[in-house]
């Protein structure tokens, strides 16, 4: 008996197009891209989870008031000048997934015009563990008009100092923390600061 013949393939026509070839260069490139994207996503997730286990806090965090250099009326309110001493060891924040650490010293106070004010006085960026060992005496305010109360309520007002940090990872979520420390009390009367205390902002 003769073997049965296979039916001839249907000729391509508008109503019966040929099936697409599944192993074209575009198909292979798409498969490679999908596999690579999936692998990178898994690696990124694993890195983020590992970063949570490596999270640390700075050590030897301190900030203190060296002097209150003056307080005077400015822009319809009170403006003060301070000199600070600050130190912290932020090296524990660094590991293989840390890109940089942003550190700043601030002040917080409450006045009649504002129930709570948080201001940044000084800041630094550390990109290596060597830069993360911070110890400064006689810090001047980095930002002009940082210690200003629009309602004129700084005189005789107590304030606290804050040392805060924020780490930026290569992959994962930004982490931050802060420590609040005793500060002092602003003078009850106006006293003009020295030219050295004013710095280059005037």
Please characterize this protein's 3D structure.
This protein is of the alpha+beta class and 202 residues long. It has helices at 25-53, 195-198; strands at 59-74, 77-89, 98-109, 117-126, 133-140, 148-149, 158-169, 175-185. The strands form two sheets. Strands 1, 2, 5 and 6 form a four-stranded antiparallel β-sheet that branches. Strands 4-3-7-8 form a four-stranded antiparallel β-sheet, with no helix packed on it. Strand 3 (98-109) and strand 4 (117-126) form a beta hairpin. The chain is elongated.
List the helices and strands and how they pair.
Layout: H1 25-53, E1 59-74, E2 77-89, E3 98-109, E4 117-126, E5 133-140, E6 148-149, E7 158-169, E8 175-185, H2 195-198
Antiparallel strand pairs: 1-2, 2-5, 2-6, 3-4, 3-7, 7-8
What is this structure, in a nutshell?
This protein has helices spanning 25-53, 195-198, and strands at 59-74, 77-89, 98-109, 117-126, 133-140, 148-149, 158-169, 175-185. It has 202 residues and is α+β, with helices and mostly antiparallel strands. The strands form 2 sheets. Strands 1, 2, 5 and 6 form a 4-stranded antiparallel β-sheet that branches. A 4-stranded antiparallel β-sheet has the order 4-3-7-8, with no helix packed on it.
What labels would you give this structure?
four-stranded antiparallel β-sheet; 2 helices; 16% helix; 202 residues; alpha+beta
